[in-house]
Structures are given as structure tokens and as C-alpha cells.
Amino acid sequence: MKDTWKIAKWEVMRNLTNKQFIIGLLLTPVIMVVFGGLPVLLQRWNEPAVVTYYVVDELGVLPSLKAQTPDNVILEEYAEKESIEKAVQENKAAGYFLLDSGFVNTGQIELKYNERNNESITVIRTLLTRTLQNQRIQMAQIAPEQVAYLTAPAEVISVPISEADEPEAMEMLVSTVFVVLIFFLIFTSGTMLMQSALQERRDRMAEVVLSSILPSQLMQGKILGHFLLGMIQLVFWLIIGLPLVIYFIDFPVWEAISATNIPLLLFFGLLGYLLFSALFVSMGATMEDLQSAGNSQGLVIMIPMMSFLFLGPVMSNPDGTIAVFASLFPFTSPAIMIIRNAMTKVPGWQMLVSAILLLITTWVISKLAAKIFRIGMLMYGKTATIGEIVKWVRYKES
Amino acid sequence: MDGLEVRNIRKVYGAVPVVDNVSFQAKKGQIMGILGPNGAGKTTTIRMIMGITAPDSGEIWFTNEGTKTSGVPRSTVGYLPEERGLYKEAKVMNILQFLAGLKGVGRSTAKKRALEWLKKFDLEEQANAKIEQLSKGMAQKVQFIASILHEPKFIVLDEPFSGLDPVSQDLFKAAIRNLASEGAAVLLSSHQMNIVEELCDEIFLIDKGQEVVYGDLQSIKEQYGNYRVHILGNGDIQTLASSPLVESFEQLTDTRSVLILKDKVQPAEFLRTIPAEADIKELSVTRPSLHDIFVKIAKGGLKDEGYLENR
Description:
The complex is a heterodimer of chains A (398) and B (311). Chain A has helices at 2-16, 19-45, 62-68, 84-90, 101-106, 118-140, 144-151, 169-202, 206-210, 215-249, 253-258, 262-284, 306-316, 321-328, 333-343, 348-377, 386-394; strands at residues 51-57, 73-77, 95-99, 112-113. Chain A has 398 residues and is mainly alpha-helical. Chain A has 2 domains: 51-151, 3-Layer(aba) Sandwich (D-Maltodextrin-Binding Protein, domain 2), CATH 3.40.190.10; 169-394, no CATH class. Chain B is an alpha/beta fold. Chain B has 2 domains: 3-221, Rossmann fold, CATH 3.40.50.300; 226-286, Alpha-Beta Plaits (2-Layer Sandwich), CATH 3.30.70. Chain B has helices at 42-49, 92-102, 107-120, 136-148, 166-181, 193-199, 217-224, 237-241, 267-271, 290-298, 301-304, 307-310, and strands at 3-13, 16-27, 31-35, 57-64, 67-70, 77-80, 154-158, 185-189, 202-207, 210-216, 228-232, 246-251, 256-261, 282-286. In chain B, a hairpin with a 2-residue loop joins strand 4 and strand 5. In chain B, helix 2 (92-102) runs parallel beside helix 4. The longest helix of chain B is centred in the middle third of the chain and has 16 residues, at 166-181. Chain B starts with a strand and ends with a helix. At the A-B interface, helix 1 and helix 9 of A face strand 6, helix 2 and helix 4 of B.
């Protein structure tokens, strides 16, 4: 443990005195603000295109239609059916349609267009639906009060049966933020871990270090060191970010955290981190460089992404089969179980099975990773093939 | 005996034995040379001694001041591997302190010793330089210092001289001799035969994972090195070469030739047979260098010519 700690300390110091790391530490919040804020600003500056449709109105409803259209959709009355198409072409209007008794009878209308503009077509569809309904109601001679009564929308008031089942918005928020942070940690320090193992190998340091300590200590030290580095980053950003969040959004941070099952978050989060970092560091130990072609090991960095594939189904049905599977499957359970737990009441047995599966998998993967790491670190000069890695795993303990 | 004792170690990768039944000793205060062509099993043998890989069978014992342990304790071993480097972006002093720290040496002690060694190797001013700013030779000196900073009782140096200029080579040689005389057992692997000849007390030659020759330098030469008689003169070399004591001869130039005496033929025995009228201006008798013996062995010469059976 003492040697593990020495390695961890070295990794931390090595990076904290590294310019690239410092720049990354300072620049990341700036980049986040730019990429987070920019789309909002762009959206605000972006003005929608104005489209004009010519309308021959035999029903006399155009004035009321015009009153309801948004600013970027203009309906212009045109008198003659025969020349309307020509006028549309000449004046470069978007298209035209005819409002006549045929529309009221069939409910169908032809909108002929020059350039398809889906947004305006959706607007027109909504308006014409209302027009059609009003026309038909008038023909049926129903009193306006009755119309209002008949067409009133349903109002759904959702009331939880028991307090415990109530989906906690705050818990959901904290859980989501936690998952995002853990994944951020996995990806950033995971990549750094991979690189650190790779560098150790490329700089030919492995053999010297391994003459002093055990490979497992070196691996654990690296994992611990990069975890600490990741935490330093997170804490640094939180110190900057939290006051801003509280100041601008007025969010009850402490209340939200106390509403969350923190031990569960920590258990799944930390084990998930361990699982993936063991995987990454061992793959780093088999590679000569990150860029070399046919570097299939680099793809393991994609494994944590699997969780995102399940996010949609889990959100729409947190108790469905897919959600249950994803919260039990160890490579997705860290993220999915935390999210599910915030959304629904996860049965105790699922929680237990998921936790046990994750524990066992993390343990097995760490053992395999240590094996791959030990052999990989001493193989110089080339990237190992998948076949070779499989062979190493099969070697008996020696 | 204080020092290292390797008994019948064997390592098999797949179906191929990389090291097969190897035994030798590296005694305290001595320098032991381990030689062999590329791929002979040297590095694997060294890695097993270092405890980086474990032998499939066999034993490795280390005795320090009368206390015998299985394997060499990590804190008492110094290792300069053949494939070596240093973290490029780290500073010299930091890296030395880190590596000494892994061996259990405190920061201040490590710093004090490191400064002494850096001074010895004329690198004082580079103490706070980054590794990437050093020349290859400088970095190699730092690696050497890193391997001995914790004052190991057993030192393994794998190709320590490769890429060094002659001045630095002499520095290293002196340092290695010094370490041995201060009581360390040194295991030295090198392809530079002249240096091995100069430094080593004993030699272990390995080929295809097996012991080929093992012993002190002098007896190895006696065993494998037939005497060579170098002659400068205008006389008829053929007559001399036809002596039953001569195995073969080589005409180097018009006036220079070398006679290789038969196995176990002593120089005096041959000199007595030289006729008085022979036109000889210069004559010298040498034994083949370790280099010649090594080349012969590497090419399979010893085995092919039945040397091993004669031993």
C-alpha cells in the first residue's frame, strides 16, 4: 500500500507540474461555458425565414386566419384561380392553396409549393384544422357555448398515491449531475491513465520501476493517482462553478443533495470508475502509441458509452425490461442504476443483484487487467494484438 | 558465500524453453559477466533474478551478511535494464528521488547521494534539468545513478556501456569496479567483449537458453582458446605450418601470418620445433580474445566442433 501510494503521489505531482494539465484545468470551464452558452446565443440571434403563401379564399375565413399566423408566415389573398400559379412563380412566393367548399366537404386541401418549408406547413395545418372544425360546426348549427363545451381540452392533474413513489425532481437532478461527473471522470482520467501506462512503456521506465515494486502496485498506484487528479479537477471546477450556479439559478444545492441516496451514488459511481479505469490502464499497457492504426484496444474507451444507448428506453420506462437489464448489466449498471433509482422505486433484489454483479465483474476485470498490465508493460516496441492479449490472460500465474 | 546463487532455473514460453536449466553464482565483491548472442535468454534470466517474472522451476537464492533469502529482496537490488529510459518531462533530481524512494530511501538522503553522484559524473548543473533536455549519454548516466542510489548489495547492469563515448565508458568502468570493491555483487551483461575482459572476474556464456561456458576468464581461455603464433618474416611459412602441432594457418600479408596451434599445445612446445634457420623478424604468442571465443560460440562453432564434448 505504501508503494502504491508512492506511485499515486508521483503521478499526481508529475501532472500537477505539467503545463498541459494546468492549461486543461483552467481552459475546460471556459470551453464548457463557450460550448454551453453559444448555441443558446446563436438560437437567439437566428431569425426564422419569412414565407408567403397566396390564398384564394372562397369561404371568407382569411381575415381570421391572418390574425392567427405567426410573424414569419404571411398569407396573401389572390383573386384569380387561373393565374395564381404563375403569380406564385413570378413573385417567388412559397406556394398557394384554395379555400373552397370542397375543402369543407372532404377535409382535404392541396398546398402547392415552390420550396418546401415544413415549419410553415405545420402552422398552416393547425390553423386549417381549426377552420375546418369551425366551418363544419357552423353548418351543423350548434350554439357557440355548446361548441366551446364540446371542444374543451382535457385537463390532467397527476397526484401521487403515496409520498415515497413521488419522483423527486431534485434527486433526479443530483443523480444526473453525479452520473455526468463520474462519466466525465471516467473519460478524462481514463484517457490519461491509458496514456500514462503507454508512456511508462514507451519511455522504457517499466522495467526499472518493476524491479522495485510489484506490477499490481504500479497499476493500483496509477489508478489511485489519476482518480485523485480527476477529483482535484472536479473540486477545482466545483469551487468555481457552484457559487455561479447558486448565484444565477438560485438552486437549493444542499437540500437537493440531502434528498439523494448518496451512498448508492458513491457505491455505483466508484465501482464503475474502478471497473473502467482497470480496463483502460491495462489496454494502455499493450499499446505503443495512441495513434497507430489497427489499434483496436483504443476502442475500449467506447465501452462506457454503452450506457448512453440505454438512456432513452430507461427514461421512457424506468421499470421496463430494457431498463432492468441495463441496471443489472455491470458495464452499464453504474450509470443506469443511479438514474433508475432516481426515477422509480427499484426493487431491493435488483439493487442487490446489480451490486453483486458489479462487484464481481470489477474484481475479475481488475485481476485480468493486472495480468495484461504485467506482461504488457514489459513488451517493448510494438502494440500487442488482441490474440496476444488473450494468450497473456491464459498464462498461468507466474 | 555472500551473493547470488542461481540453481537450475527454467522458463518456458509456449512450448519453447527460453532459459533451460541455468545455474551460476555472482559472488560479493566480484563482477560476473553474462554473455550470449541476441535472443540467447539473457534478459529473461535477468528478469527472473529481478523477480519481474518467475521461473517455471529452479531456485534463486541471495545471501547478504550470512542471511539467506529466496530471491533477491527488491530493496537490495540495483537494476539498469537494457531497455531503459526516463520520464521525459520529469526533472533529474525528482526522478532520482522518486526511484530511490521506491527502494525506501528518504528524500533528503536521496538528494545528498544524488548530488554526489551527479558531481562524479559531471552532471551537477543538470540536477534540475528535464530529462528531455539531456543528451543520450547524460541520460544514461542518470539511469546508472538511479540504479545504485540506494546502495544495493546486488547490481544488475544490462548493456551499461552501449552508446557511451570512451571517456564516459571509463567513468562507468571505474564506478562499477568501485561498487564491487565496496562489497556489491555485480552481474554485467554486455556485447562489448573488450570491456567484459577488462572488468569481469567470472563469465557465464549462454546460448539458446543453455549454459555454454561458465568459469573465470583465464580458465575459459585455456579451455577454448588455442594459442596463436603471429609471425613477421620472409621465410617459407608453409614449412612451419606443416608442423603436426599446428592446426591451421592464415597468411595475412606477404610477410605476416598467423599459425593457430592445436588444442592443448603449449607455446614452448611449438617454439622448440622452429628450425634455427627460419627467417623470423618478429614473433608473438597470444590467446584468442573473448571476442573470438564468443563469435565462435555464437555461430555454433563450439558445439559443431565438438568442444562441448571435450570439456
